[in-house]
């Protein structure tokens, strides 16, 4: 069996017992344990003089190989091109997208550096699986060194419509770099369509259908590769079991007690402008305005741990949300009830599982999101006998699979308020039916299914010959 080499900007905590390890980390680790291999990426540290060789930590058949970043690389590659250019652009936010040649050069430099550090660790039959927008040029850099390995890429964000992508000064370089892989995976059919439309109409490449669910052959920039959608998912059964246990923890009971019989709406997101948090706060405000019976009877818990805190747009959204939550609480709060509980901190998976279980409504309303695993986690954590209702943005990748949620347009504040009201008053039989339908999707496509599909597609490469 070929070894798997996973490359991602962040490498999951080496200490597996750490509760913060998310679904992706669990899935990638499971794949790596099966095949043996390397997990390669940034250590998370920024230092004055990074060591020239990666730090290697063997754990069983798997080796973690991590590199520190120099301050300048952190600024230009991570804060700069990755998070001030590609992130907003890929989330359709041209108005927030900064273009700078300096950051682009930093992005290419770090990708070349990372590739040169991984190359000596590779064995001839290894399969290289690269993750996310930070590392698009990684395969191109490995191929420049002369490596002929099977290389796959999975994008964890949306892929923008060509009309948006062409605003990027280096759009052709970025797509050419994607075509250096053998398999390019997206979350949704919508993302895949955007990519093949770019290939057809901008790159003047050709696209051949491989049949239902198999994606497309892409012939462009002198290469042939497969592009396909692989909707990422969660580790469904273990999470169902965790939530059933978490329902009885002391922390979950404390949350329940604090509600004194009131209903709870919950949102959990990184503090990011793509998550639609101001619009979500406004929708809750509108619920209290338009359906006053909820005043004093419904609370909204928004958990939003800060993220990318050095990037100006993230500083701005944090300020905006502080003002907005203060304003709504000031307008409606009573001496014994606060409408919005807004928390800038993170919780363990177990705590969140218990919080989801207690909540009547899961409110997941990004303006655009690759998949949004919180939506799937909320569903898996419900009590099947008395499940809560998922209110889900049509612009989350998850909406393509989770059609039995209440699907909303997050820009339409009043209609989200109406959906909240409908969710809060939904009869038990309807809640159970919707929950059953959603769980069938999560059981059919769990994280192992996602990983196996991708690795199988990659193992059949190259598609050139
Ligand atoms: O795709 C978005 C993503 O890279 C996720 O995989 C991850 O959870 C999140 O962003 C973390 O962001 P950062 O590494 O910038 O803190």
From TrEMBL:
<keyword id="KW-0328">Glycosyltransferase</keyword>
<keyword id="KW-0808">Transferase</keyword>
<comment type="similarity">
    <text>Belongs to the glycosyltransferase 20 family.</text>
</comment>
<protein>
    <recommendedName>
        <fullName>Trehalose-6-phosphate synthase</fullName>
        <ecNumber>2.4.1.15</ecNumber>
    </recommendedName>
</protein>
<dbReference type="GO" id="GO:0005992">
    <property type="term" value="P:trehalose biosynthetic process"/>
</dbReference>
<dbReference type="GO" id="GO:0003825">
    <property type="term" value="F:alpha,alpha-trehalose-phosphate synthase (UDP-forming) activity"/>
</dbReference>
<comment type="function">
    <text>Probably involved in the osmoprotection via the biosynthesis of trehalose. Catalyzes the transfer of glucose from UDP-alpha-D-glucose (UDP-Glc) to D-glucose 6-phosphate (Glc-6-P) to form trehalose-6-phosphate. Acts with retention of the anomeric configuration of the UDP-sugar donor.</text>
</comment>
<dbReference type="InterPro" id="IPR012766">
    <property type="entry name" value="Trehalose_OtsA"/>
</dbReference>
<comment type="subunit">
    <text>Homotetramer.</text>
</comment>
<comment type="pathway">
    <text>Glycan biosynthesis; trehalose biosynthesis.</text>
</comment>
<dbReference type="Pfam" id="PF00982">
    <property type="entry name" value="Glyco_transf_20"/>
</dbReference>
<dbReference type="InterPro" id="IPR001830">
    <property type="entry name" value="Glyco_trans_20"/>
</dbReference>
